[in-house]
Amino acid sequence: MASDELHALADDRALLGRTSTAERVADILRSRIAEGFFLPGTRLSEDSIGGALGVSRNTLREAFRLLTHERLLEHRLNRGVFVRVLSVDDVRDIYRTRRMIECAVVRSLGEPPYALDGLAAAVAEGRRAAKAREWKGVSTANIHFHRELVALAGSERTDELMRSVLAELRLAFHVVDDPRRLHEPYLTRNAAIVETLGKGLRDEAEALLADYLDDSRDGLVEAYAQRVPKDA
């Protein structure tokens, strides 16, 4: 693990405050994994990370356990803890889960008008990132869009489930070497979903979303399969 990475991670120590807990350590590591700070396949050193964050070995191990439960990390016998490398089947299953959750949320919205400010903000965020040619920023904005979409259900449990699913999905995004091709086409489709919901056309929005997720799955699976071993 490079020294500049450890220095950057040490900056996160302030986030722990005086009430350092395994859950808060897990929050930091989850965010870093989502950002691509720790890439899939990276071995996580207890000594280095624990020293950078200023936490005990037991606290760090509990954080690792939590993230392993979320399928972001994996323990390899006699080798240590690693950021997971998804299989192609994992990617397909993530999209199957997303389709069930996201389409069900749209289907159950009830009568319009809908609270679309968060969705519109995510669309604007993506457009700004695309204009600056920051394609990872476009990916992040797209994640925000789908989290805001699920938030329309007003369910903390669904929000938590979606956060976990999308965090796992980003493991695949970090492997693909052409994020522009992967994410840029969906800027327009995000905007179309917001516009359709703004008109109160819930069923039409659900159909747009279902097609969107199917196309996104197919594009990611195709790109991802070229980057990972078949037995990953």
What does this entry look like structurally?
The protein has a three-stranded antiparallel sheet with strand order 1-3-2. The two termini are 22 Å apart. The chain is mostly helical. 67% of the residues lie in helices and 4% in strands. The model has no long low-confidence stretch (mean pLDDT 91). Helix 2 (22-35) crosses helix 4, helix 5 (88-107) packs antiparallel against helix 11 (202-225) and helix 6 (117-131) packs antiparallel against helix 10. Strand 2 and strand 3 (80-83) form a beta hairpin.
Mean pLDDT equals 91
Neighbour order of strands in the largest sheet:
1-3-2
Helix-and-strand structural type: mainly alpha
How many runs of DSSP E, i.e. beta strands? 3
Number of helices: 11
Computed Rg:
19 Å
Morphology: globular
Largest sheet: 3 strands, antiparallel
Helix content: 55-70%
- The sequence of SSEs as H and E is HHEHHEEHHHHHHH
The percentage of residues in β strands lies in: under 5%
> Uncertain segments of ≥5 residues (pLDDT<50)?
none
Give the distance, in angstroms, between the N- and C-terminal Cα atoms: 22 Å
